[in-house]
Design brief:
Elements lengths: L12 E6 L5 H10 L4 E3 H8 L5 H10 L12 H8 L3 H26 L4 E4 L14 E6 L2 H12 L3 H9 L4 H6 L3 E4 L7 H17 L5
Parallel strand pairs: 1-3, 1-4, 2-3, 4-5
Helix pairs in contact: 1-9, 2-5, 6-7
Length: 212
Amino acid sequence: MSAPGAQHPRTPRVGLTGGIASGKSAVSSQFAALGVPVVDADVIARELVEPGAPLLAILFERFGAGIRAPDDSLDRAALRRLVFGNDTRRRELESLLHPAIGARTEQIAQQAGGPYQLHVVPLLVETNAEPRFARVLVVDCPESLQLARLRARDGISEPEARAMLAAQASRAARLAVADDVIVNDGALDALPSKVAALHARYLELACSQVPI
C-alpha cells in the first residue's frame, strides 16, 4: 500500500505488479486497450539491451562472452543462469539495469500524459518501490497455477520453476502492499470486466483530483 505522505507526479501512477506468470501482461494489455498509457519496466529493459545498445556492450564486458548469442544479441537464458543464485552477480546486474530503466521510465512517463498511467514493475515489492505510486495493483493467482503456467511457458522442470518463484517476493508480501487486487485464476475473458471496473474507479479519482 502506498506510503502516507508519499510524493506523486502530476499524472497519477498506478504501479502494477505480480509474481512471475501471474498474468501482468494480460492485465496491462487490457488497460492499454482502454487508452491508458502503460509504461512497462520489462519492455524498457529489453529495449535497453537491443543489439548495438551501449548498455549491451557493458553487459558483455562485465559478464563475458557466454551471454552473447550467435547473432550478437543478449542470450537472456545464459544471463539468467549466470546470476541466478549468485547474489553478487545479481546485484552487479541490477546496478547497471535499474538506473537505466528508471531514467528511461521517467522519460517515457513525462511524454505519455493521460489522466493516470499504469506502470508495470515486476520487482516493485523487491525494490521497495511502492511509495512511488499513488496506488499499487497486484495481479494474483494461486502458486500452483503460477507453477503450471511457468512450466508451460518456459518449458522448465518443476524444481526450476519453484526456484524461480522462491527468488521473488512472496505472494503474501505482494498482497500486503496492494491497494487493489485482480485475481487472475480463470479464463482470460474474465479480465476485461475486472480491468474496466478499476479503470472507471481510477478515472473517477483522478478527475476528482483526489490522490488515487
